[in-house]
Amino acid sequence: MKNPLKFIQDVKQEAFKVTWPTGKETVQGALMVVAMAIVASLFFLLLDQILKFFLEIVLTMSF
């Protein structure tokens, strides 16, 4: 880095080129994250209950 002032100017120029999301896009993205977290948690809850059911069957079997 030869010239720190030039570097700062370049960073500022690049920051202005960024396309920032609108408020609506941010809310939509956040809602999608929440929705996918709920779906994933329900999936793992169901999977856990199914595996628990089969494990109980296996452990209660007497040979």
Sheet with the most strands, sense and barrel status: none
The domain tally reads: 1
* Radius of gyration of CA atoms, rounded to a whole number: 26 Å
Question: Using DSSP, what is the number of strands?
Answer: 0
Give the overall pLDDT as a whole number: 93
Low-confidence stretches: none
Order of helices and strands: HH
Number of helical stretches of at least 4 residues? 2
Structural class, from helix and strand content?
mainly alpha
Helix content: over 70%
Strand % is under 5%
* End-to-end Cα distance: 74 Å
Shape: elongated
Description:
The protein is mainly alpha-helical and 63 residues long. It has one domain. The protein starts with a helix and ends with a helix. 83% of the residues lie in helices and 0% in strands. It is elongated. The longest helix is centred in the middle third of the chain and has 38 residues. The protein contains 2 helices and no strands.
Provide the descriptors you would attach to this structure in a database record:
mainly alpha, 83% helix, 63 residues
